[in-house]
Amino acid sequence: MTNDPSSFPSDFVWGAATASYQIEGAAHEDGRGESVWDRFCATPGKVRGGDTGEVACDFYHRYPDDVRLMKELGLDAFRFSIAWPRVFPEGRGTVNEKGLDFYDRLVDELLGAGIEPFATLFHWDTPQALEDAGGWPARETAEAFAEYAEVVAARLGDRVRHWITHNEPWVYAWIGHAWGLHAPGRTNEADAVAVAHHLLLSHGWAVEAIRRASPDARVGITLNLAQFYPATDTPEDEAAAYHRDGQDNRWFLDPIFRGSYPADLLERNELVGPHVRDGDLEAASVPLDFLGINNYSRFIVAAGADGPKTVGNPDAQHTDMGWEVYPDGLHDVLVRVARDYEPAAIYITENGAAFPDVRVHDGAVHDVERTAYLESYIGAVGRAIAGGAPVKGYFVWSLLDNFEWAFGYSKRFGIVYVDFPTLGRVPKDSFYWYRDLLASRRSAPRPPSPIAAA
Ligand code: FCB
User: How many CB atoms lie under 10 A from the CB of residue 391?
Assistant: First the structure.
């Protein structure tokens, strides 16, 4: 396995990632307002088994124990998200101080354990009040987001140095608004296009707001990026793969790094233009300290009669999500993004795998496949760094088994098993593997890194 310590810079950040709705629970506590995910879960037929995030991992109450686990793991950093409806139960207007108090306590607990907080402002739990007032298809929601960003940064910015504005805007826009498979469950492509634009715009505004409140903050955005490979080298399949790359990757990368939408996309999609006002793309392309990349798999694309279609690779290993295990895809996307967009720094803000874990008679979880997955993907990160990609850190998704959106609790991504009936935590074998990897990096001799020195 290509897991050569020398390819990782000495200041490389090893972390684990989570998101508010997926772990916190305490849905009605301390003045938290309703989010679109509460509403979606309460709508029959939307989430497998009728599961909800009402209790989730009960992280809201158990965070001190979980931070102890993180310390045992040897994490440098922990990525979590802030639940907007805890801070603004009605979306705008009155700040709920008790909601902010929770993140205050969490940040202090992390810092006390020597763990750097990486805070994401939006991981899909829009206040329902804002959804009712028009949601992300409306420009006012972007304004509300910038207000929220400023309030949170003013409260936590003396201790939180790393901020992520949005998590995976493509997923929130398309899966939530065109396909209806995530909250808020809309099924209208025009809405999805408007949402994508307003997420990009509000990202730019939020970066400015965070920097106003906390001038030393390092700010970025997290995109879900995957490579699209043509099924064959015919021009038709190449074009199909480029088309899908445009829809999923360049739609966000170009505005953020180039201040423009890709021309081929504008030609194809007449829905984009009407939302763009003067100055929007300047706002969206504010220089960033880093780009966050979430990557799990890759796509193979062929030209079809009704447009590009994704084709499977039956010979490959797949995770419990049906996602192909393809570590080279992470390598390729890192090298390509570094070459084409030259981000100042990249963090892998999510990477991991769901497998149907079972606890055996001794109570342990021998998750051999997840461990192999992590080892191969981390190896791919090392190769990408050696190839010149400025990757500064890696966050495994996820610390804990949690609420996997429309799949409810049926998909386990954690390196810590959660026994949902009792909420007990059981570190899996992958937890111990990751702990040993982190410990070995710390004790390994550190060659000077060209990236760290740059
Ligand atoms: C990503 C999400 C994260 C988690 C993983 C499996 O798309 O950002 O919340 O659900 O997928």
Answer: 26
pLDDT at 273: 87
User: What is the gyration radius of the CA atoms in the chain, in angstroms?
Assistant: 21
Taking 90 as the threshold, does the pLDDT of residue 7 lie above it? no
d(CA 200, CA 260): 11
Q: How far is the CA of 237 from the centre of ligand 1 (A)?
A: 28
Q: Of 168, 369, 375, 404, which is the active-site residue?
A: 168
Considering all CA atoms of the chain, what is the largest pairwise distance in Å, rounded to the nearest integer?
63
Confidence class for position 2, pLDDT limits 50, 70, 90: very low
Q: What angle do CA 289, 259, 387 make, to 5 degrees?
A: 50
Q: Could you tell me the distance, in angstroms and rounded to a whole number, from the CA of residue 23 to the centre of ligand 1?
A: 12
Distances (CA, A) of 68 to 75, 156, 349, 418, 428: 10, 21, 21, 15, 16
Q: Is the CB of 171 under 6 A from ligand 1?
A: yes
Closest among 32, 83, 4 to 378, alpha carbons compared: 4
Say if ligand 1 is within 6 A of residue 165 CB. no
Q: Is the dihedral of CA 237, 238, 243, 248 positive or negative?
A: positive
In this prediction the pTM is: 0.97
Terminal C-alpha separation, the chain: 28
**Ligand 1 close to Cβ of residue 167 (< 6 A):** yes
Rounded to the nearest angstrom, the distance between the alpha carbon of 80 and the centre of ligand 1 is 12
Out of 3.40.50.12650, 3.40.50.10860, 3.20.20.80, 3.30.70.1290, select the CATH number for domain 5-443.
3.20.20.80
Q: What residues does each domain of the chain span?
A: 5-443
DSSP H helices in 53-96:
59-73, 84-87
- Please report, for the chain, how many H helices and E strands are present, in that order: 18, 13
Active site residue 375: no
Provide CB contacts within 8 A for 277, sequence distance 6+. Answer: none
Which residue owns the Cα nearest ligand 1 atom 9? Answer: 19
**d(CA 452, ligand 1 centre) in Å:** 29
Burial class for 341, CB neighbours closer than 10 Å (0-12, 13-18, 19+): middle
